[in-house]
Amino acid sequence: MSHNLISSLSAFDGINTHALLVREIAGRYRQAQDSEVLQAAQALLAAQLRGTDVLSDPVIVRTFLQARLGTLGYEVFAVVHLDAQHRVIDFVEMFRGTLTQTSVYPRELVKDALRLNSAAVILVHNHPSGSTTPSSADERLTSTLKTALGLVDVRVLDHFVVAASAMTSMAESGLI
After folding, report:
1. Which tens digits make up the pLDDT trace of 144-157?
2. What is the DSSP string of 86-116?
3. Which pTM does this prediction carry?
4. What is the CATH number of domain 54-169?
């Protein structure tokens, strides 16, 4: 079977050769859209995150959380579920809010932790404003969630506040 290199290369006509490419179902290549590149990067980071030891590789966790939540124009509250050895079970976006707030329901968090058989969790939410300083409401919420999850033997290891260019760990700040 001979392969016609010229006809294969013609699929790339008119495409920036330095761009990332997506192969369509028909077999033609096209330049990837920004959203496709970001989605692929998030999937790659999620694959690296799943099953990793969070405590020994915090760079992967921070990179994933910033890529996933840092540039959103609305608040999202999410949870990284961990097993007894602090390996990642799953990352779950639990609640979505507005530009300045989101409602978080402890009951739903407890249900999800039990469903996934989590031994510990890392809480995370973003601040679209760009400030990663935890508010007093963030501190109260963390305390409430820590108490609620503690009733079912799930430890809260940290609560990250994420923005596009920065991230604050409430545990490192002495708030947990």
Report:
1. 999 999 999 999 99
2. -BEEEEEEEEE--SS-----HHHHHHHHHHT
3. 0.70
4. 3.40.140.10
